[in-house]
Specification:
single chain; alpha/beta; TIM Barrel; 2 domains; 10-stranded mixed β-sheet; globular
Length: 346
Amino acid sequence: MITPKLIPAHQSTDPDSWPNGEWSEELRNAVREVPALLSAVKLRLDQLEQPVDNAADFPLLVPQSFVARMTAGDANDPLLKQVLPTQQERQNQPGFVTDPLAETDVTQGFMKAPGLLQKYQSRVLLITTAGCAIYCRYCFRRNFPYREHRAGDHQQALDAIAEDTSVHEVILSGGDPLLLGDAQLQQLLATIDAIPHVQRIRIHSRITIVLPQRITQGLLDALQQRRCHTVMVVHSNHPNELNAQTLRAFTCLKQVGTTLLNQSVLLRGINDDPQVLAKLSIQLFEQGVLPYYLHLTDHVAGTQHFFVGDEEARGIYAQLQRQLPGYLLPKLVREHSGADSKTLMN
């Protein structure tokens, strides 16, 4: 029996319409300046509720395909608000710090090797890259010292995983693991797959949402025929992020046996609405992705304007729970540094 060749997610009915390198070209052409972003969405500075920050330490980066999903002329567009740097990020608020989860605190002992974090039993998190295809303003690792922890040089981390037989799951994170090239990612996956005690490889990536052209045939080949079960945790916060391209990306990933889950972050002014969250869960399921986590934001300096308090979040979640069947209901969670697991907030 001949196995049909999978059509990469970025390709239309004509397989030659978008070559495999198109995703990297689009990334090179991503919007990196506030004036260019505002021009693309047909907005003036005086239409914005908050003054922009043209010199933010945490830079602006957003692919054109994600910009195209924003509503032109809408200063409150939920996708725009996730990426537009504003002066709110410069406000200092007590309790909001650069490393709220103490990931790099040596006294906590989370760092098992350069770029290798272990917070919970049986699983470790490998920082694969320092970069992303989009810079989300609420990012909890916006201040992570990637250079110090040698993101991109994985050998010591892989050796540590191989030596620790209690590790059953390896989580690839970053940055975004899918910024690695197909060959590099295939080599990394093969090395992890060859460690006998590892049973699952989990990949956390927002690229599947913001740059679905990344799901190339080379990537699908890298994910296929693994001994380990492969899980892709995508990151969508709003139903407007989902379109025909994300559907095709998810379809291709499922064809190579990848389990698809979604995690969202509860963000003030973006998705702190049970109707929006219900629509997101339903559309994700229609595209083949199971809702997994709804995270409360961490107390990261510069992100306080996105923060939703615990009690308010529980109220939103209670309304969401009344609208959805259990299998479409993500778990409402907060992460506390040093806890044995994420804390269920519902």
